[in-house]
Amino acid sequence: MNNDLQIGQIPLFEGLPQENLDDLSSISVKRDYKRGNIIFTEGEPGNGFYVMISGQVKIFKLSPDGKEQILHLFGPGEPFGEVPVFEGRPFPAHSVAMTDGTALFFPRTAFIELIKRNPSLALNMLGVLSRRLRRFTVLVDNLSLKEVPARLASHLLYLSDLKGNSDQFELEIPKNQLAGMLGTIPETLSRILGKMVKGGLIEMQGSLVRIADRDVLKELASGLKRLT
Amino acid sequence: MNNDLQIGQIPLFEGLPQENLDDLSSISVKRDYKRGNIIFTEGEPGNGFYVMISGQVKIFKLSPDGKEQILHLFGPGEPFGEVPVFEGRPFPAHSVAMTDGTALFFPRTAFIELIKRNPSLALNMLGVLSRRLRRFTVLVDNLSLKEVPARLASHLLYLSDLKGNSDQFELEIPKNQLAGMLGTIPETLSRILGKMVKGGLIEMQGSLVRIADRDVLKELASGLKRLT
DNA sequence: AATGGCCCTTGACTCAAGTCAAGAGAAGCG
DNA sequence: CGCTTCTCTTGACTTGAGTCAAGGGCCATT
């Protein structure tokens, strides 16, 4: 049996007639990745984009001395690497597989032809890019206007929200990667998590987090309060 | 006589048949702004987007204690405020007029109808959003992985580039606003500009900059070198 | 010419977060 | 099973950049 995501289940392709799904299917190429594989590199020409089928990828920027800033983590059903498709310039960031997985690759020119013939595909794609722009405004806001404890608090609340506001959840990614998402380094993250535990805001066992004081966490996240 | 930008001269609408331009014209509403006017506010529902005709606007985030991070500065011909159009959620940031000016407002539903009937309008818009995503990756990279002197150096080189690599140019905006673009505060910007002048990298008179040592500036911008 | 309101700069100080270094677990591999 | 390798934590130190406070210059308006 095959558990893989089918092309019609991809949100980007929602609402398309079967005929278009067949077209998409016929232009797509399946690609498998092992954990750690480079999918594309910043500066490399982009001849198409990807949709994750299984596994997880990160999109990130790299500083000359090797520090990483993660821009996105994408899982099954999510498209990535679309910027060069519509802009014609190279990839603006790097992409590496976080786990073993599979993606569909859609070549640029064939995909653009499909878009020309199908306005709802265009609108779906506009929605995807718009959501991504919004996320970036949040990221910039965090990096520029908030301190690390506030970013971490927001992120924990976000994760909790993803699990239906459960008080308990897994981080899903290693802590050094989390540091890269929050624009900091593992040492700092570790210290701040330590303070949160001591302050009674959360409890931790490995990568399992339990929110102990949601209200204070919210105040921290909004910048009303500071972590002492 | 009328110096204003005509609708056909807006890059977003490039390549559209006259009929569509007329449609666009008929759904658009002209709005005038005075310097300092709020155009929209974060959290406000977005029922349409804007195209700048004359003047300049800034799009920015605000921290609880009033610090600003500028996300974009837009001038004549540039669209802004499109995210809610395709995503259906409120504006993700604030917008204020930097100078007196005029914008065209395009209501959401009418515009979406036009897009559905016109693939090249959709592709143009996809191009605009993609370019904007790329710019954000650069902004995030700067904020997270580079120090203020490096961000400033890149910005100066960017301004020089805009003027055909001229060694001399105006900042165009007040220095406190420049600080807000670079993710810092006026005091810090002032100090670093001071250091650059002392170090012989640039010369300054008011808001006029002359690049004196482009090579070192480039090394600074890339992070290879530090400002002492 | 004088007043008030920005804009910009400079100095002294503070502090959040990064660097460097060491070590403990945990996980993957031959 | 033992070895390497990676992840995570903790301590001591450094530092980039922010805060606070003061003052000078410039412009617009009266």
Question: Please, could you describe this protein's structure?
Answer:
The structure is a homodimer of 228-residue chains. A 4-stranded antiparallel beta sheet of chain A has the order 1-8-3-6. Chain A is 43% helix and 23% strand. Chain A has 228 residues and is α+β, with helices and mostly antiparallel strands. The interface between A and B is large, with 48 and 48 residues. The structure holds a DNA duplex (30 and 30 nucleotides).
Short description:
Two copies of one chain form a homodimer. With 228 residues, chain A is an alpha+beta fold.
Topology:
The structure is a homodimer of 228-residue chains.
Chain A: H1 18-27, E1 29-33, E2 38-40, E3 48-54, E4 57-62, E5 68-74, E6 79-80, H2 83-87, E7 94-97, E8 101-107, H3 108-117, H4 119-145, H5 148-162, E9 168-170, H6 175-182, H7 186-198, E10 202-205, E11 208-211, H8 214-222
Antiparallel strand pairs in A: 1-8, 2-7, 3-6, 3-8, 4-5, 4-7, 9-11, 10-11
Helix pairs in contact in A: 3-4, 5-8, 6-7
Chain B binds a DNA duplex (30 and 30 nucleotides) through residues 147-148, 174-176, 184-191, 193-194.
